[in-house]
Amino acid sequence: MIVGTAVFKKMAVACDHGGLALKPHILKTLKDLGIEYLDFGTDSMESVDYPVYAKHVGEALHDQSVDGGIVICGSGLGIAMAANKMTGVRAAPCHTIYAARLTRKDNDANVLALGARVSAPHLAQAILEAFCTTPFEGGRHARRVEQLMKLESNDRGGSRDGGQR
Ligand code: RB5
Question: Which of 45, 50, 57, 95 lies at a CB distance of 3.0 to 4.6 Å from 16, suitable for a disulfide?
Answer without folding.
Answer: 50
